[in-house]
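<amino_acid_chain>
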Amino acid sequence: MAPNETDDRTTAGEAEEPRAGRRKAARYVVPVTVLGVAAATIGLVPALADSGDPDLPDITAAQLVEKIAQSDVERLSGTVKITTDLGLPNLGGLESGLLSGAAGGEGGSSADPSGRLTELASGTHTLRVAADGPDRQKLSLLENAAEYSLIHNGKDVWGYDSASNEVYHATVDEADAKERSRQQPPATPKDFAEEALKAVDDTTSVKVDGTAQVAGRDAYRLVVGPKQSGSTVGAVSIAVDSETGMPLKFTLTPSSGGSAVVDVGFTKVSFDRPDASTFDFTPPKGAKVTEDTERGRGHGDFGTKPERGPKSEEDLAKGLDGLRMLGEGWNTVAAFDTGAGAGLPTEEEIGGDLGGFLGSLGDQVKGDFGKGTVFSTRLVNALVTEDGKVYVGTVTKDALVKAAEAGK
């Protein structure tokens, strides 16, 4: 009989234990930054690639969260499938160009990971991943007729784009290597699961909902979601390997229904040590090599920009005028002032039809805050008011407008 917990007892008493467990989750080998205000999310593959309901011992939600937190897998290799269905408007391919071009900058290398990994923000992708402890990881993005690889081997970080035959290289010291392990872009179910488990509090429902088999492994199914109404998040489902405690699949479904917004899962996985040659790299003959010493020394995160992300709300507030967090739990809304003193530029201010075009992408709203425009995806909504205030959260449009009125 598959284990099944459906009552809220796992969310009040047992959720106290997950809090301690999620602090330990910071030890993950391939950690994450997932879904900030403008984050990339990953979409629909079948909900849990379920090929059977293995008969596993009963386990409570608290025990399963603790099992994830205590997972100490440092060596693995496998194939991960990732798809994005954020529900962004179709801009005729413009959004893909903006994503890939913004990070690399004009004249930058096509092998720069800060540009290439933004491709995971849209479409369907297949990744090959490998890890051998904190000093060796490899991620390869497989394309139709080409491959992009990002390799960390000791002090060296290499990016290679086979389509352009370009190479990116940075070196990192020990401190950077540790920082990198906390800031690598999300690529595996474990990456996404860590962030989801940080949301476990009194506003969260946590339960075990049966079992599944993923990538040939027996797994428990952990379901996490908001108790309150108003969130765009319906539920987060995590398939947890019954032996190692490592998440094998992560699926986020929206409260509005339909296909998943986030789904990332192993199709193949092995916990044997990868061959050492997996992490070897020598620039191919004739390749253009870009040395990035500025990012590599003191800023050499595994594919990130030199500027560190904010470590706390206080740090973020230094870069945003009067950052405030409104509401609680899954209905939290970030509010800040752009400092511009005005909302979206008008057609007259910027010339042409761009002002009108930007406005057409959103819904016009009004309230105690005045007038504004709400820009919506299937997960994240943002309200820009006429006086330059911004409210952002994984909440519905109505909840966002109410939060803006309450926070005025």
